[in-house]
């Protein structure tokens, strides 16, 4: 039995979900999206994700036909129509149909997709994972757009090299972000993360909030040379949560295993999400 999607005003089976072929999301890659997951069946950060979706849409010039409150209701209703299992949810916004195949008509389309959450290998969290660095930057880093051509290409390269993620490095050698993640490093005991030229991840912000008061924090540019010499490195994302990094390209990070401070943040984040998921609010 498949899942139920919300597509352009209707709830339909995933096998029946479709957009017209003249939609600008398909023709030109003009659109944005957001991704979230459930914890104990609840989308505990739904407001953060919907607010970011609205910011992304504004940045690329799409006027959404729904308010934040209406979008939250649609997500919750779509989730309710699906099996009660831990799930991931994607909200997709496209530019809509275009008679000349390039000019938006001010009628965007919206789809909400729900699918069962798939666990990642436990060794990523217990032993750490490898990432690679690639020379690339995103055109509109502050918007979560559907332009993933470069990301798909570099992720294929990462898999070929036994890595789980590719991290973008600019022409000056500065680290920005992963294809679907943010990056942190403990450098000289300071929790450091880039702040410019990135998508502000929801998990990234929650980790910064949790770390405040426990670790000194520095939001600044990080050069790749600094990154590979860091004591600890980890990734954050909504689907993978916090993933310790034990190798960047061919450089071993620290002792080559998850560091104590990274593990402390992993435990704090797990306790935080569990507490929110179990609350009645």
Q: Can you put this structure into words, describing what you see?
A:
This protein has 281 residues and is an alpha+beta fold. Helix content is 30%, strand content 28%. The chain is built from 8 helices and 15 strands. Strands 6, 7, 8, 9, 10, 11, 12, 13, 14 and 15 form a 10-stranded mixed sheet that branches. Strands 2-1-5-4-3 form a 5-stranded antiparallel sheet. β7 and β8 form a beta hairpin. The longest helix has 19 residues. The two termini are 32 Å apart. The mean pLDDT is 97.
Give helix % range: 25-40%
Shape: globular
Uncertain ranges: none
Largest sheet: 10 strands, mixed
The Rg value, from CA coordinates, equals 19 Å
**Structure annotation, total helices:** 8
Order of helices and strands: EEHEHHEEHEHEEEEHEEHEEEH
What distance lies between the first and last C-alpha atoms, to the nearest angstrom? 32 Å
User: What is the percentage of strand-forming residues?
Assistant: 25-35%
**What is the overall pLDDT average?**
97
| Alpha-beta classification | alpha+beta
Task: Please provide the count of β strands.
Answer: 15
Describe what is shown at a glance.
The protein is of the alpha+beta class and 281 residues long. Helices cover 30% and strands 28% of the residues.
How is this fold's topology laid out?
Layout: E1 4-7, E2 10-13, H1 24-28, E3 31-37, H2 46-60, H3 68-80, E4 87-94, E5 109-116, H4 123-126, E6 129-135, H5 149-160, E7 165-169, E8 174-178, E9 182-187, E10 190-193, H6 202-211, E11 217-219, E12 222-223, H7 224-229, E13 232-237, E14 241-248, E15 251-252, H8 260-278
Parallel strand pairs: 6-7, 6-14, 10-11
Antiparallel strand pairs: 1-2, 1-5, 3-4, 4-5, 7-8, 8-12, 9-10, 9-13, 13-14, 14-15
